[in-house]
Each structure stands twice: as structure tokens, then as C-alpha cells.
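Retro notes, structure queue

What went well: the backlog is down to a handful. What didn't: a couple of records were mislabeled last round, so from now on we paste the full input next to the output in the thread. Example, using Protein NRT1/ PTR FAMILY 5.10-like from Populus tomentosa:
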Amino acid sequence: MATETPLPYAVDSSVDYKGFSNSGGWKCAFLIIGVEVAERSAYFGISGNLITYLTGPLGQSTVTAAENLNLWSGTAWLLPLLGAFVADSFLGRYRTIIVAAFIYILGLSLLTLSAVLPSVRAYDCQSADTIQLCSPDPSLILFFVALYLVAFGQGGFRPCVQAFGADQFDGQDPEERKSRSSFFNWWNFGMNAGVIVILPFLNYIQDNLNWGFGFGIPCVVMAVSLVIFLLGTKMYRYSIRREEEHPFLRIGRVLVKAIRNWRISPAVFFKEDASCIVSLQNSEQFEFLNKALLEINGSEDSWMACTPREVEEAKAVLRLVPIWTSCLIFATVGSQVGTFFTKQARTMNRSISERLEFPAASIQLSIPLAIVVLVPIYDRVFVPVARRLTGEHSGITMLQRIGTGLFLSVLAMVVAALVEMKRLKTAEEHGLVDMPNVTIPMSGWWLIPQLVLLGAADVFTIIGLQEFFYDQVPSELKSVGLALFLSVVGVGNFLSGFLISIIDKTTGKDGGDSWFANNLNRAHLDYFYCILAVLSVVQLVAFLYFSKSYIYKRGSIV
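Corresponding output:
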């Protein structure tokens, strides 16, 4: 599917806090995984049932709530680009994690406060004869400020803590390189196991007891996460930045120089570089960047001079763009879990016994449960067998792993559309179309297959993207690499919000019911899921096309 470029990225040395190199390894990695388990439990404890809070206590419509949730979620998944830039350029990963954790805890504290403050409702502004103008609801303002503080906090925390965990393994040591590949599997195993434990507990408290407690517990969990992280300070392996120009400047200079020289004859040649000999074969990709190597009459400033290694480094970053782009619909599909899948579940029979039913948001547990079951099978059964057959360190290449998950997401959307068709037909057969508050006699368990398929897709695509973007960026940009993965999810959420807004306005004009009507029995989520299935097929074809010509970085776990 792809080949390997001979570009020899230099590797940062890693030491502990005293300057010795015998640190890191699985002991530190498992401690960092524990930190992430706590953080993800706090995050999903908020986001997992947020659609219920928006449409319930805050009284928003289904469309408005879905748009707000997608906007916030998209922002939360894009902010890691900023956090990673700060970490890789200024503070370092360790310090960025600590600063981001305090912002995170502040946001969760204010979110809890907003849930316990009394709200200003419309009836509070009315008297017997007049309707007074109300000032904006302070608790609502505080809620959204707190929500976006949480987004900022996780934006700095998420990419840095995962990159810091992967830093505990030496990518140049054959055994540790295998361990690093396995780390991404167990990272996701632990993260999802934590969500399985805490999410039903929090959903029950939020739905049946008190939203203040429901938001306060994640705040306490996040504080515990910070304490756990600080306990390992003396054991961690820290990367030492090389004394050379920042990669952003190197890549930027290559782009500027190539643009300045774009009118020059297409003849390609290279300057001598003792540290790197670039083959003609690998320089054929993104040929226009080769012009950054040209010097006109020896008049070029020394600062603007580019080496073959720097040109190939810029090409390596550009090669990530098509892969990034061809995974966006996958994230759009995943964003439906916390919005429409949950709203569907609220209309269905969720009884476990005569007196007990599971919260609608708890259907989301099917995804982490599938991941927890499949990750050990993948890591301990599939990878060793595939490794013997293919000779690859990780069993199959990273791009093959990602592509497999994209295919599974297509199947998930097809199943989702079929299940929704059955739900609508059941509502019609029992005369419940205009009775949205009456439970449809169709089990909520019908939603499980599509969620399990999405969980299996995550085992392949999500974990594959994490490893891919960490592995394929220059060594000084590991946090940025993982932020690029997270930005896939962020942009996917924005795309979901955009599609919902456009379709809602188009299908709901002239006073008719839109595909996303508040009464889901008159909505057409099945049509929306069919559109996502078609877009997912187009995405898969594009991914296969781009991955076929992708060139891996030397020393990577292809």
C-alpha cells in the first residue's frame, strides 16, 4: 500500500528528571494511562449526557441542542492543535499538561456551579398584566463559559498526555518500538474501560438525582487525575530538544523558498548535504518543493538556504494532509452517537426489569465495551498472527488498519438507517407518530449492533490514526501529530453540525417537519444516516487512493 522513504529524522534523547536515561518504560506508561482513564471519565461524564441537559433543564430544541453540542465538541477536538503547539514550541509536554489540568478543573468547577444556581425562566419575567424584559440568564452564561473552559483545558491536556506516554518508549529500539505500538492499543483499552465504569453511574445521577452532583463528580475525578500524574514526576522519561531550528520554521522556509522559485526552470538538482542523501524516486512526490533547493547566482541569503533533509521533512508533513482529509466523514459518523443515537434511545423501550430501565445515554457504553473486548484480541491474537504472515512489526500497516475501520463505519451507517426505518414503522403501526412522549414498543437493544460496529471501527481507525500521526511527524512535533488526529474528530463534528443545519433548513421549510423534528416519530434520521453511508463510501475510496501512494518515514512502524 505504501513505501518507506529514506529520510533519516534525528531522534531526541530522553532522560529522567536527574538527567539519566534509565527511566520510562511500561511502569510509567501504565501510570500515564491511569491519568488518561481519569481524564476521559471526567470528559465523557460531561459530554455523554449533554444532549439531555441541553434539551431538558436548558429547554433547547433537538436541532439547537445538537448544533450546540457539535460546535462545542468540534472546538474541544480542535483546540489540541493550540495546546500541542504551545507544548512543542514553548512549555514542553510535562508543563503543558499541568497548566491545562488546572484550566480543566476550573471549567468543571464552574460547570457544577452553573447547574446549582437558580435559572431565570420566561415565567419569572411575567406578571399578571405585563411581560418584563429579562436580562440574560447568569447561570446559562456561566454554563457556556465553563463548558468552553473545559474545552480549552482538554485541548492542552489530551494531545500532550498521550504523546508523553508514547515518549516513555524509544522508537529506535526494536523491542521498545513494538511496545510503543502496543501502548496505543492499551491506552485506548484503559480509557474505554474507565468510561464503562463511570458513565452509567454518572448518567443515573444526572437523569434521576441531581445535575450538580452529576457535574461535580467529574471535577473531583479530574483533580485526582492531576494528583496521579504528579506522583510519577521522578520516574518519567523526558525528551530533550535538540539545539537546532524549530521544525515549523524549517518547513515554513521550504514552502516560502519553493513559492519564490516557482517560475524557475523545472530542472531538479540537489545541494550536497552530508547528513542526508535524497533519492530521486522519493523526491518525485511534491516535486514543486524541490525548487526550495535552487540558488539563483549564489545570491540567496544563508538563512533561506534549504537542505534536502528539510525539503523531505516538509514533504512528509504535506503527505499527511490527504490522509487527514479522507478521514473526516468517519468523525462525522461518530458524532451521531452522543446526539441522535441517544435521542432515539429515549423514545424506545429501555426496560431491564419491571421497575428498572437503563438511561438513554448509557447505550453509548456499547462502543467502549466493544473496544475493551476487541483490543486484547487485536493486540494478543491478531497482531502476532499477522506479524508472522506479513513481517510487519504491528501485524498490518497503520494505513491498512485505518482503512479497515473506515469500511466498518460504512456498515455501521447502513445498519443505523435500517434500524431507524424499523423504529419509524413500529411507531406508525402502533399509532404513536403524534405521541412523542410515549415509549415505542421496540427495544433499545436494537441500537446495539450499529454501536458495536462503530466500536470495532474505533479499534482500527481511531487507534491507527493516533499511532500514524504520532509516528509520521518530525520528532520535535509529536504533540502536534496527535493534535492532528484529534482535529480530525473536531472538524468531523463541525461537518456534522453544518450538515444538520443545512438539511434542517432545507427539509423544514414551508412549515413542514424537517428530518430532525423534535418529534423523532415524524423526523427522518434514516434518510440522514443513508447520506452518511454514501459519504462514508466516497471517503473510503478517496482514502484507498491516497494511501496507495503514501510514503512512510524511515524507522516508522509501518
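Agreed that this is the format going forward. Reviewer comment attached to the example: The chain has 18 helices and six strands.
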